[in-house]
Amino acid sequence: MNTYLKVLFAYLLCAVHPYLALGKITLPSLVGDNMVLQQKTDVSLWGKAKVRATVEVIPSWNNKKYTTQAAADGSWRLKVPTPQRADPIP
After folding, report:
1. Cβ(84)–Cβ(40) below 8 Å
2. H-assigned helices in 1-90
3. I need a surface site. Which of 12, 47, 59, 87 has the fewest CB within 10 A?
4. 37 DSSP β-pair partners
């Protein structure tokens, strides 16, 4: 498995983690350790939050804020673009 993608996923989880604690956001079991993200594409993220809550994700690779609002049933979904793979650190 590509080490860069593992690091990329770890950063993504770190970006989402503060919102998990503060907003009681839950992610599906599909999202977890050893998840591989495709480079140069839009990755869909989804989960549950409080009804009509604002959900923000800030990936560490671009520090841009992606925002969506939970629906009446608390479900939310957004897309986050992933960067091109960087050269591995020797």
Report:
1. yes
2. 3-23
3. 87
4. none
Q: Report whether 21 contacts 45 (CB < 8 A).
A: no
Task: Give pTM, 2 decimals.
Answer: 0.63
Residue 29 tokens, joined:
């079991």
Q: What 3-state class would DSSP assign to 14?
A: helix
Tell me, what amino acid is at 86? Answer: A
Q: Token pair of 87, please?
A: 């050269």
Quick one: 78 exposed, middle or buried, by C-beta within 10 A (0-12, 13-18, 19+)? middle
Three-state SS for 49-68 is: CCCCCEEEECCCCCCCCEEE
For residue 38, the one-letter residue type is: Q
| Helix, strand, coil percent values for the chain (each to nearest 5) | 25, 25, 50
Q: Give the residue from 64, 51, 48 showing the smallest Cα distance to 15.
A: 64
